[in-house]
Design goal:
homodimer, globular, 310 residues, 4-stranded mixed sheet
Chain lengths: 310, 310
């Protein structure tokens, strides 16, 4: 069973009120695969970096067990670079700079060995590129897709062509509202699912996540953390845990999706505890299991007796 | 078993994107008691209105079974009046005007028949008045308290004298952060509980609520509604369902508090479906039970198997 992640591998320059660092290993595909590999031993990465990408970062990914056959190295180009600054309460950030560099001309070619990928995670890329990727995969069991305001605003029609090819769209609440042009999340979810994806997951950061699947809604809490060092990559790490559990379970029913969201939330709760992807480098199955179980206590509503009116 | 609610009874003038109305029955004690009376047949109200308060509104409360012996009518004064406007997404509002009127000189006298009240709900009033109220109650089993930014900013020391007398403080997330002077809610909760209240409930509006009691945290979801007509009174209605379940259960342990939050959330989810307190006037035990049970489905995390590492 395999996961294919297509997305960015980047240099992140991050400022938080507590720490700052330049050119940290980042990008959606890095976080996603570093989380997913705890669940699945066949995690494949498709992306591009420049000649400036250090061997040390390649080693981090490779030592994590990630298959880098699909990582193109454009020796003449420079790696995609993002920089951002978090506010004091960590729930908001300003993007200071984005240098697309090698990403500007990225047209992913999927290695033949990846054509049989079971779960495909389409990172936040041009919807046209997302379709081109899917056209190269034989018969994926499940397609998970991310997008963002830039694509909603600038490539709406193209995004509408991609959505019918997607099983599960994962966006944040602002993106869901913008995509549906509707402030109410329940109505927005209806509208978005009408555009193609059978399942919709809305991430709400420190407020958890909502799952719309079949005719039910699941509200997952966020893990209450005392110490958030750096929220960078939390959304992609969430997607990694999500895809990881799904490929391991090899089922996509409501109960499995609920568990997958808990594992996604678990992985996200770990990654924000340290700067950059550091926390993803030294987790253990026991720690992951322990925190996932803590979510059940956190959300547990005791049995309600029959209602006795006054 | 009895609930005593001390708070405002008001005229609310409300503008939403869909509807507006002037001088609707409002105030924290109105919403709280109209919710609590579904759980308890001895709900007592202490507050003040002016000579302009219509008999019709008194009848609404009285027909709801609420004991109005403690509602002072200041024939020469005018009723407290609030007006506000909701934004399109209903999560934000602007207060347009506040006329304290009779509230300005309000010094609640608790009728002798109320001295044995079991649960006391201290509405969002001057902390000094909150203490004066408690001094008049013989031996309450449980004290629930609300406050707001105005009292935190202007009467901080007085609030610090009230908090040790409180069993359960119920505030929203912005108030919790301001009271603790700490953006992280877990740390803020620790600090606030150090100021007195054994239990803290943080309301997060459309994102649910957090309960900090004993050494556990409970994250309750909000009920996902397609149609929110008017959020006015949701927080006080929440407190009414909360107090209602607690007095009915006559226990204050973690499991009971969790259930109480679900009943509070249930009542709040109803009240926002109609303008003003209208929805609270015609509920049935069956409808309340049905929605409370729906919360369990909404939040249910299926059993997690032992973690199988990759």
């Amino acid at each position: 069973m395999s996961i294919l992640a297509v997305g960015t591998v980047a240099f992140d320059s991050i400022e938080t009120p507590f720490e700052s660092a330049e050119r940290v290993l980042g990008g959606s595909a890095s976080y996603l695969t570093l989380a997913a590999r705890y669940f699945c031993d066949d995690v494949r990465l498709v992306g591009v970096v420049g000649g400036d990408f250090p061997e040390e970062y390649l080693r981090v990914l490779r030592d994590g067990g990630i298959d880098l056959q699909g990582l193109e190295i454009d020796a003449d180009g420079e790696t995609f670079a993002w920089s951002g600054r978090y506010h004091y309460d960590m729930n908001e950030r300003d993007t200071l700079d984005t240098q697309l560099n090698v990403l500007q001309s990225f047209e992913p070619t999927i290695p033949a060995a990846y054509h049989d990928s079971r779960i495909v995670c389409l990172g936040n890329l041009d919807p046209k590129i997302q379709r081109d990727v899917l056209a190269q995969i034989d018969n994926p069991a499940y397609v998970i897709c991310d997008t963002m305001n830039f694509w909603i605003e600038n490539t709406y029609d193209s995004l509408c062509e991609t959505l019918p090819l997607v099983d599960c769209l994962v966006v944040n609440d602002a993106e869901a509202r913008e995509l549906a042009d509707e402030p109410n999340l329940v109505k927005a979810a209806d509208r978005i699912r009408g555009m193609g994806p059978e399942t919709l997951i809305i991430k709400k950061g420190e407020h958890g996540a909502l799952l719309f699947s079949g005719d039910t809604i699941f509200s997952a809490p966020a893990y209450p953390l005392e110490d958030i060092q750096d929220p960078t990559g939390a959304g992609d790490t969430f997607a990694g845990g999500l895809a990881g559990h799904l490929v391991r379970a090899n089922r996509f029913d409501d109960a499995t999706l609920r568990r997958a969201i808990i594992y996604g939330s678990t992985m996200a709760s770990f990654v924000v505890e340290r700067f950059g992807p550091e926390r993803l480098l030294n987790l253990t199955p026991a720690r992951i299991a322990e925190r996932a179980h803590a979510f059940r206590d956190l959300a547990a509503i005791p049995e309600l007796s029959a209602f006795q009116p006054a």
